[in-house]
Write a structure and sequence with these properties.
The protein has one domain. It is 64% helix and 9% strand. The chain has 4 helices and 2 strands, in the order βαααβα. Helix 3 crosses helix 4. The N and C termini lie far apart (66 Å).
């Protein structure tokens, strides 16, 4: 029988991102992270900074994910939530810096034309 690895952390992080973003104002936070690319950046940011947990399950048996946050202690869940808050700020900061540089570059090249 063959087994596959499941990342038990991913669904928790996805759910926590939804919960955290729901507490932020629609603009600019919810609006910015409704963009798939930024949302994926946030997911990757968090997953790369928290301990991930995995399960090996039989490929032939359907795996019903019901463990939820019980995979992590309360402190670990707070750490994940904190990481999401920091990630939101870090990613938006980089996004705004990049957008500002691009705008300056476009205005400079437009003036040179």
């Amino acid at each position: 029988m063959s087994k596959k690895l499941l990342n038990l952390t991913l669904p928790i992080v996805l759910e926590e991102i939804e919960n955290v973003l729901a507490a932020y104002p629609k603009y600019p936070y919810q609006q910015a992270f409704s963009v798939s690319e930024l949302r994926q950046d946030l997911v990757a940011y968090v997953l790369s900074r928290v301990p991930n947990k995995y399960a090996a399950v039989e490929e032939t048996e359907p795996f019903v994910y019901q463990m939820g946050s019980s995979v992590y202690s309360s402190k670990q869940m707070l750490d994940i939530e904190n990481c999401i808050h920091i990630g939101i700020q870090d990613i938006l900061h980089v996004y705004h810096q990049t957008a500002s540089r691009l705008a300056r570059s476009l205005s400079t090249s437009h003036l040179a034309s």
